Here is the input.
Amino acid sequence: MRIRSLFSERDLEAVREATAAAEAHTAGEIVPYIVERVVERDEARWRGATLGALAAALIAGVVHAVGHYWSGFGVWWITLPTIVGAGFGYVVTGVDTIARWLIPEDHFERAVRLRAEAAFLEEEIFATRDRTGILVFLALFERRALVLADEGIHRSVPKDTWQDLVDELISGIKGGRAADALVEAIGRCGALLEEYEVERRPDDEDELSDDPRIRER
Here is the structure.
């Protein structure tokens, strides 16, 4: 999966415009942050290789048990299927769907949250005057999303308010419409900030860039 296949220049401009519009009437500072993947592919590859080796060894054992077949190669019949199975398992995990299946859900959740928290610090979202920064974080390979808001937002907006927005973002990623889902989510952020009266000061400035941040990792 490549970010540019899901986010064209027009999509990124739509995200910028949605961010500016959402901030126009509130004190919120929204930072869209898109990561191609968080979890390294090697983890899935080695899991696939292990499962492939075990499956091949099991099949070879069943063939021998049922047909008394050694192919005349003795030790090779024991070792070669295992090597081939490991290689096959390693290669097929290059397919994202298979790779996702091999990685536990809780590992995804933990890795994405840690990466989002790192992004929060990296972009200094905590450094706004009234602590009103909001990170809208998408991890495309993992099909995960998070909204992390600073304490100035939490004083007005209950933390659990963001969950519906996150769920819709995740649905959008899974449905291949990540760009549209992100634009809609940012619009909803603005609506929530207005609903909970996170009001803009008369001398308010745009403290964080409206440009979406794009990262491979």
